[in-house]
């Protein structure tokens, strides 16, 4: 745990050593607020809740989480410091978890900074704060899944642009998995069990159930399992590249 915390502190401090943290936070807050109030017509809906706010999170994370995750390993490979990291007397999984945890906490900080929206809807009406809290937890879990995927993709290349594009493509597949357009293309040739499996991989499907106010066990298991699998894959990629 001590090693993970050391990696976490190093990586988390790295976000604030450059303008990356400020730019990301401003972009995230600006886009989240703009989509909520202007695109989703928050005031025209006449409801004091944050459903319009959370509606856009899968699409925001599809772009913004890979922007955070693309540098986790691609930058280390580009700078040549990954060889030093992998020769330290620590386990690769400790470094992987520490880096991912730093990115996840940073994403959590961005979510915390949106709390004034929560205060606003409580001032305007009487929202179901249990639903809002569940939605925040679900959003943070989904951000962790996006970041774990982005980290695994980042370990494959030293080019941050390629890491970003790859993470967006993989994330897009998970976001679109439950859409009728995708399922309609699969149903003609795939067994029903395959169709159901693809549908169950949808980020939006699981997240929407959480934003309905219920932290369902299947949704939580899905995001946690995906995070663990992506981190395991990240470790395996690093081990293979180290052996090569």
Write the layout of secondary structure elements.
Layout: H1 2-16, H2 20-39, H3 42-45, H4 51-55, H5 57-69, H6 71-79, H7 82-87, H8 92-112, H9 115-124, H10 129-154, H11 160-176, H12 180-186, H13 192-199, H14 203-211, H15 217-243
Give a structural overview:
- By secondary structure, the chain is mainly α.
- Helix content is 81%, strand content 0%.
- The chain has 15 helices and no strands.
- The protein has helices at 2-16, 20-39, 42-45, 51-55, 57-69, 71-79, 82-87, 92-112, 115-124, 129-154, 160-176, 180-186, 192-199, 203-211, 217-243.
- The radius of gyration is 19 Å and the shape is globular.
- The model has no long low-confidence stretch (mean pLDDT 85).
Concise overview:
It is built from 15 helices and no strands. The protein has 244 residues and is an all-alpha fold.
Per the principal axes of the C-alpha atoms, what is the gross shape?
Answer: globular
Structural class of the helices, strands and pairings? mainly alpha
- Arithmetic mean of pLDDT: 85
**Helix and strand succession?**
HHHHHHHHHHHHHHH
Name the beta content range.
under 5%
Number of helical segments?
15
Low-confidence stretches: none
Name its key features.
single chain; 244 residues; mainly alpha; 15 helices; globular
């Amino acid at each position: 745990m001590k090693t993970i915390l050391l990696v976490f502190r190093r990586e988390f401090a790295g976000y604030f050593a450059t303008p990356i943290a400020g730019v990301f936070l401003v972009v995230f807050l600006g886009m989240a607020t703009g989509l909520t109030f202007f695109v989703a017509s928050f005031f025209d809906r006449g409801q004091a809740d944050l459903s319009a706010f959370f509606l856009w999170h899968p699409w925001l994370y599809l772009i913004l989480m890979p922007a955070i995750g693309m540098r986790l390993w691609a930058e280390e490979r580009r700078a040549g410091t990954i060889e030093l990291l992998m020769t330290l007397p620590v386990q690769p999984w400790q470094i992987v978890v520490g880096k991912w945890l730093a990115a996840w906490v940073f994403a959590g900080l961005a979510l915390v900074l949106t709390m004034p929206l929560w205060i606003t809807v409580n001032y305007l009406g009487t929202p179901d704060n249990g639903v809002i809290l569940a939605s925040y937890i679900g959003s943070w879990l989904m951000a962790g899944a996006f970041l774990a995927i982005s980290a695994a993709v980042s370990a494959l290349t030293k080019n941050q642009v390629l890491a970003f594009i790859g993470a967006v493509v993989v994330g897009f597949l998970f976001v679109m998995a439950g859409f009728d357009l995708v399922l309609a293309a699969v149903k003609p040739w795939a067994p029903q069990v395959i169709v159901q499996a693809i549908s169950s991989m949808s980020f939006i499907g699981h997240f929407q159930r959480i934003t309905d106010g219920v932290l369902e066990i299947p949704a939580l298991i899905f995001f946690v399992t995906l995070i663990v699998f992506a981190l395991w894959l990240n470790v395996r990629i690093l081990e293979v590249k180290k052996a090569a």
